[in-house]
Inverse folding.
């Protein structure tokens, strides 16, 4: 043990006694949740009927988490801290439930689970039980904002929670299994972005209990000096606590906590009062305790405590094996519950001596229920940012650059309140959002060079080449009551597929809990998209994130494909104002035709899907064919096809329908934004051919609309995994999404046209042939394509 952290007395004997009492009570309650159905205080001999029929849960990590919770209580109460804890080992649900019950926050949230014997029995029964609560630190647990079922994201969430919360301490317990994941390994670099002036502090607590489910953990097997060097290389100052003797570990842990918090306070004071600018080397506590500490040392002749066998349920046969039942009773009684709870089952004064009061309790902190803290975002009027559109399709703008101006204003308007952040993997300028730099630079605490641009110790734009970190930071930021947007290349947002899935599940569950207030939505801007990655090629071409998201909870997910700059402004305004959603916005950054003035854009986006009368030729009658489109490039190709049909087949009645909100295609009973069959048939008809040009994989549109009356008449064109480095128009030709192919589709599917319009179809096919020859000779698109504009 390092010299600065010996076990000299830092606690009075009285403090030690009460801390140990709290820890033993938490251990008892954690074990009780895994095993007991009745007889919660062991007031009668333990019998098989008192045991749950299915033993579920994770004991191995629980004693270590209980130790951390106990000692956080001590420093929070002693120092008057506002604190939050992110529990990385999400399987430690029994511990966090036990501690929130002890401190009273659980019973305040769920009055039917009182802080007495009846409430204790209900606490035990409901754990991992039908109709009860999950075994993870789920949304149902007061004080939680991180479930940890999927490991690797705790530290990123902790840093996101600390951003722009200067008075907050965020403790983060990192399991040594979790520490092996890539996202967690990258998260150690978050300390290079934490501003000691405007942000709170993160105290990582690396809990090394040695094992995962069945294997040793890498970091626990490193020699202490090697692990110490690793953490110092990450820029942390490690403080080590090791042992299996509770008295020694309590004293060492208290000293470690005090040392870490003193260092944090001094670093913040130096930055805030003295103007210190040197990057802070923040403390990290390395806690080594046995897995399954204080549980059965041996079961059936096999070692359990301190091994992987204690990971879940150390004694699995207690209902059928009398020896296991005897061991369980001895184990539970070893905590001396008669000293910890009175005759009514209430925690005694010694157990509660270290517990903070009111909102400072970890289970009652409003920072873990961010909807209580969130404020409306000051959104400026769109009129000041909209592009003028006198006629459709005659002027060009880069949609995301226009959005960047809006986001820059939001940055300016939140400069004092600091509750809006933009995150992305090194792509803010690439995605044309650089106007935000007029209001805020990029957060950066590491060294700088004269050639650097826009780096700012106090910046609110977050860039790091790790989508996992961007996602984790933003989730932590939103969950603690702030706002933000994640900008990414469309193809590489897949890196966080699993993370967004976890967040959607969190939101879905939270929406069902009346005590959890709605938080700001998680907003994605996906740009540099599939149709304009012609220069980077096949590896950068994947529009499938939309498919992934639309598989998830319909009450949470929203997907928008605005076709131009003004519709992008309208959609972004809506998304940034919304609550408890995951909004995916797909928009291009290349010059794109402007189709709608801002007032029409607002109405069209509110409608979600609508007929563009100016683009069609139905003249008040029924259409012969419907051209549908969703996405900026598909919209342009549909309008170019409509123009070709107008010129070549003027007698044909063509309807153009643009879809911005892709969920509108779903039935109303399957998604809140879905259309009724009457609405859908009114737009697309029930019996006319529909040629639909879609931004992504075409089968998604079929899946969304398969129950519609006109589905057998629906023909969808989209990306079909045919990509390369080529010209922009060749991308759509390669995937049969081009205007000429769409005209050919109309001729093929409208009854009577195959013969009557054979010459027109031939001209369209010839145009595709000319295209192939032209690009191979000139390296650019045909002039008739490159110079095209809308002219009705």
């Amino acid at each position: 043990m390092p010299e600065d952290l010996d076990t000299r007395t830092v606690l009075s004997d009285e403090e030690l006694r009460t801390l140990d009492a709290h820890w033993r009570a938490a251990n008892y309650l954690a074990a009780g949740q895994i095993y007991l159905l009745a007889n919660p205080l062991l007031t009668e001999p333990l019998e098989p009927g008192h045991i749950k029929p299915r033993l579920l849960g994770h004991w191995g990590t629980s004693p270590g988490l209980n130790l951390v919770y106990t000692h956080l209580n001590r420093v929070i109460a002693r120092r008057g801290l506002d604190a939050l804890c992110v529990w990385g080992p999400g399987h430690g649900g029994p511990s966090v439930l036990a501690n929130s019950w002890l401190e009273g926050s659980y019973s305040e949230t769920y009055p039917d689970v009182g802080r007495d014997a009846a409430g204790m029995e209900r606490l035990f029964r409901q754990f991992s039980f039908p109709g009860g609560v999950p075994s993870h630190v789920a949304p149902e647990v007061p004080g939680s904002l991180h479930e940890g079922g999927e490991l690797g994201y705790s530290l990123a969430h902790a840093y996101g929670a600390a951003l722009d919360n200067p008075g907050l301490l965020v403790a983060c317990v990192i399991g040594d299994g979790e520490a092996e994941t890539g996202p967690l390994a990258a998260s150690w670099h978050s300390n290079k972005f934490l501003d000691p002036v405007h942000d709170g502090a993160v105290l990582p607590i690396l809990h090394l209990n040695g094992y995962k489910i069945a294997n040793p953990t890498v970091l626990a097997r490193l020699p202490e000096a090697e692990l110490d060097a690793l953490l110092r290389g990450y820029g942390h100052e490690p403080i080590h606590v090791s042992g299996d003797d509770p008295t020694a570990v309590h004293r060492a842990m208290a000293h470690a906590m005090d040392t870490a918090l003193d260092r944090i306070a001094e670093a913040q004071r130096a930055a805030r009062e003295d103007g210190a600018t040197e990057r802070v080397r923040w403390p990290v506590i390395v806690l080594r305790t046995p897995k399954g500490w204080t549980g059965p040392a041996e079961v059936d002749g096999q070692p359990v405590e301190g091994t992987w066998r204690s990971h879940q349920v150390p004694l699995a046969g207690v209902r059928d094996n009398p020896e296991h039942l005897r061991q369980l009773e001895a184990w539970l009684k070893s905590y001396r519950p008669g000293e910890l709870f009175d005759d009514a089952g209430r925690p005694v004064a010694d157990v509660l001596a270290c517990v903070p009061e009111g909102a400072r309790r970890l289970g009652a902190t409003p920072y873990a229920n961010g909807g209580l803290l969130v404020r409306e975002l000051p959104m400026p009027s769109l009129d000041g940012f909209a592009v003028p559109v006198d006629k459709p399709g005659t002027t060009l703008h880069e949609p995301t650059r226009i959005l960047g101006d809006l986001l820059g204003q939001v940055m300016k308007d939140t400069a004092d309140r600091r509750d809006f952040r933009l995150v992305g993997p090194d792509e803010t300028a690439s995605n044309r959002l650089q106007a935000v730099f007029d209001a805020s630079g990029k957060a950066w605490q590491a060294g700088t060079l004269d050639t650097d641009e826009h780096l700012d110790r106090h910046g609110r734009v977050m860039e790091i080449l790790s989508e996992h970190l961007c996602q984790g930071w933003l989730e932590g930021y939103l969950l603690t009551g702030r706002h933000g947007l994640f900008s990414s290349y469309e193809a590489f947002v897949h890196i966080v597929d699993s993370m967004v899935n976890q967040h959607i599940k969190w939101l879905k569950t939270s929406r069902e809990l009346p005590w959890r207030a709605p938080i700001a939505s998680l907003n994605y801007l996906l740009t540099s998209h599939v149709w304009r990655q012609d220069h980077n090629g096949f590896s950068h071409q994947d529009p499938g994130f939309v498919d992934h998201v639309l598989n998830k909870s319909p009450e949470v997910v929203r997907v928008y494909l605005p076709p131009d700059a003004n519709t992008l402004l309208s959609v972004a305004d809506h998304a940034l104002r919304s609550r408890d959603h995951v909004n995916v916005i797909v928009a291009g950054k290349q010059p794109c035709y402007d189709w709608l003035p801002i007032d029409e854009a607002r109405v069209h986006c509110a409608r979600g899907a609508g007929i563009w009368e100016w683009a069609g030729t139905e003249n008040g009658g029924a259409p012969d064919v419907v051209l549908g489109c969703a996405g900026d490039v598909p919209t342009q190709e549909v309008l170019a096809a409509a123009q070709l049909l107008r010129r070549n087949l003027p007698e044909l009645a063509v309807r153009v329908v643009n879809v911005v909100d892709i969920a509108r295609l779903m039935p109303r009973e399957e998604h809140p934004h879905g259309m009724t069959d009457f609405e859908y048939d009114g737009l697309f008809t029930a019996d006319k051919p529909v040629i639909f040009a879609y931004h992504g994989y075409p089968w998604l549109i079929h899946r969304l609309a398969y129950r519609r009356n006109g589905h057998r008449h629906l023909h969808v064109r989209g990306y079909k995994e045919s990509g390369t480095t080529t010209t922009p128009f060749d991308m759509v030709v390669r995937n049969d999404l081009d205007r000429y192919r769409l005209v050919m589709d109309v001729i093929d599917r409208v009854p009577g046209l195959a013969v009557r319009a054979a010459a027109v179809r031939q001209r369209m096919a010839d145009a595709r042939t000319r295209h192939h020859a032209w690009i191979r000779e000139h390296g650019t698109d045909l002039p008739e394509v490159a110079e095209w504009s809308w002219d009705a």
Summary: The radius of gyration is 30 Å.
